[in-house]
Every structure is written in C-alpha cells, then in structure tokens.
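Hi R.,

Here's the chain you asked about this morning:
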Amino acid sequence: MTPAKLRIVILKPSKYSLDGHVERFRRGFMPNSTVPYLRSMTPAALDGVEIETVAIDEYVQTDLRYLNYLHETDYPTLLALVGVQSHQFQRSLDLAAYARAHGVPHCVIGGPHPMTCDTRMFENSGVSFALAEAEMIWLAIIRDAIGGKLQPVYGSEQRWQLELRSPVVTPLSTEDLRRYVVPMMGVYAARGCPFTCNFCSVIKIAGRQIRSQDIETTMATLRATKAAGVHMVMFTSDNFNKYPDAAALMRQMIDEEIGLRFFVQCDTQIARQEELVELMGRAGCFQMFVGVESFNRKTLIAAHKAQNHPELYGEIVRLCRKHGISTHFSNIIGFPEDTRASVQRHVRVLRELEPDVASFYILTPIPGTEQYDDFLAGGLITENNLDRFDGTAPTWRHPNLGHQELQTLLFDCYRDFYGAAHVLRTTWANVRRNAAYGMLPGCGFPIFARYSAWKKMHPMAGGIWRVRRDSATDYRGLRRERYGFDLAPLPRSLQLSAADAELNLHARLAI
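And here is the predicted structure, written out as tokens:
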C-alpha cells in the first residue's frame, strides 16, 4: 500500500574520537556541503506522496533530540547517511542499526567509503548502499522507499554522470547557520581531478574528468545564498583552477557585484595562472587552499604527485599576496622517506615561505586508494579500527618513525609553525586585506591551533568547544546484534566499472 507521506532524514554522521566519544562541537568550522545539496534535490512530493525532509549535521548537534527522527512514525522514514568517509563508516552503521531497531524501515549509506570500498558483507543487514553520485540514483531511492523496499545497492554500474545536472542549492536556515563559527555555504561548481596521487580517493569518488555545472546554476545558488544572509562561500571543487569556466564565473560575479567572500582549493599549477588569481581576488576570494604536501620532489613522484614542484610554492604565496588572497598550505608528514629531521626541516622551509595558514596530517592509507591497496597487500597496516583513518592518527608501520613519535611530530608541527611572529604578521596582513575576515585566519586559527596542539587535539577536527553526549559503547550492542562484530573489518577496495574506467581513460588522454 502506497503511503500518504514519507519522511526523509538526510544526516551527515560524525565520527568517534580516540576515546570513543562522538565528535560534537558547539560551533562547527563550516557546514557540510552534501546535506543542503541533497535536500535541494529532494522534491516536496513524488508520485503523489508528500515528502517531509529533515536535514542534520551530527557534528554540530549538541543534544540527542535529533535521534527522535530515527524512530518510526505513522508514516515510513528513509534515513540517508551522506558523505560518509571511512572514519565515519562505523558511526553510520551504528546510526543505521539504531534506526532499524526503532522501526525505521529504510536506511541507505552513501559517500566516499561505499563508493570506493567493497560493502557486500553488509548487504543482508537491512542497510542499502549508494555507490554513485546522488543525481543518478536519489529519485530511484525515494521511489523504492515509497514502494516499501530498497535495493541492496544503487549505482553499481556507473558512479558518475557525464554531465552534471545540479540543483540550485537552498541555503541553510538562520538557525542552522548559527551552529557554525562563520555562516557559510558550500557550492559544487565542478567535480573531478585529473591527477593520480596514490594516497587520494578523489579520482575514485569523482573521477578524473573535470565536469562542471552550468554557470547560471552556480550564480543562482550564490544569489540565493546572499539573499539568505550568508556572507561566505566555499567552492568545494578539488581543483578550482582546472575548472574550465572558472574565469567566466569570476567575471560574472564581478559584473553582478555579488559581494560574497569565498575560498577555493587549487592545485600547485595555479602558480602559472596569475590572470585567474587576479580575477579571484577581484571577485572576492579571501583564501586559497593548496595541497603542497611535501618539499621533497622524490617523495612527491613516489606518491604519484608529480604535478607538484616545490620551487613554485613560494610563487603561489607571492601571487596570492599580490592580489589580496591569503594562502592555506596543507602538509602531510610520515611519507615512507620521512625522518624526524626531514619533518623538522619541512616546517622550517614552510615558515620561510610564510603562507598565512598551514595544516598538517599524518600520511594515512585511506581505504579505496591505490596506496591503501599496496599497504594492505604488504602487511604494513597496523590499525584495524576504521575510526582512526582520518589523517590524525598513525595507522601503518613506518620504516623510520614509531607511532608515538609520529603523533608527537604532528603536534610539534603546529606549535613550530604558529609562533608569535607568525601570529602578529598574518594578523596584520589579513586585517589589511579585509578587516571583516582578517582575524579568523590571521589570529584566531593560529592561537586555536597552538591550543589544540597543547591539548593534543587536531585543530581541523571540525569545530570548537567539544561536547560529549554519547560514545561507541552506547551502540555496541546494536552493532553486534545487527552486523555480528565489534569492529567493521578493513575493507577491500571497490573496482571501477567498465563505464567509469572508460571515463577516466578519456580524461587521462585529454591531460
């Protein structure tokens, strides 16, 4: 019998911290982009059935009342756990188990982990998996929920659509925006990455072909975002400078005087694209995130990141500073060639380049990546808890650095980079660029980073003012009952379908 109404709960799961507590914060750093995107794709009614949509970001839920939405009502509920990465997978399984135990008939898990890892062992546990982009499968999932039964998997034959058919994103409500340090929105202007870094899962999640949505769709989202009172935007594309319409979008934002501050992620080849950097500065870009990772060219080549040329890193800082944009350099410590001395040398060189912001992560073989497959086959992975595969904890046997030494070096990097001189210099520089946004990247984050390092907490964990409400132990019984284990086994990688491999092949030929 077709129901008169369907409730859809779109939930971004958090993760379990080292002590097993669910990571929650009174203020998050930035809203998750997938939740409002999927909510904007969800119709108010489908096939004559009314649809009620509830959107939840678990990282900023400071009480447990939202769990009431995971209880069955007079009409059926579909729980969609979205954007699930490997370190959030066990939390998503626990939430699905909780929902099923409280009468919710339909649960589906989507995101990087199910898209890149083999989840067949869970297919008879009452949980379905989304293996493709939402635009390709979301309406089919909703229709099956209305019909009374989900398929075990969706999108197994093809992960990516050739052309993005994106919705205009409805901004978060004022109440939801208050949950974050800065009210901002994520915008998917383009997807895909042409490179082949062996430690990165992007090419398995979004493919190597750069695919973009219409500029008018992006502009409509920006207009709606501004009208809702949002002041900052994050373009979530992995390589914004590889987006073919990036310059055209910047010009249209300038012409319309859209007036939104934004930040982007670019690859290091942006050093040769001053015209685009100049346009971004004029359009309102206040920060550029760049994955520099290492200053060792041999290390970069071994990681299949040959597109990075360390001698150009300083040029990126110079260009951005010239055009009023701050720089955020991301760094990885613990490559196989690293030693304590080389990591310390890396930080010294980084300080000489003077990027405004730097973040540091421990090399982690992320499930689904080429590196993960190599490390797993070589018996190098020492951690069997997926919660730890988040870039902040040692997970494999390093030839030169022990687990404790790696952990200590991680926090030493933050302390050494964010010295008093750096705080004063970047605060003044950012205030000169833009007084309204200068204090957060220039002063607030460096001080917070030093405080976090002192507390041995990663400053990029997701927010400030941790709140403890529940932990993995509260769900362990449900996990055992539904899935039959205490810890989810380390997965095997999910291979690309023939269609997806063909799409990647054409992208490779086009580089």
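One quick note: Residues 5-159+475-483 form a domain with the Rossmann fold fold (CATH 3.40.50).

Cheers,
M.
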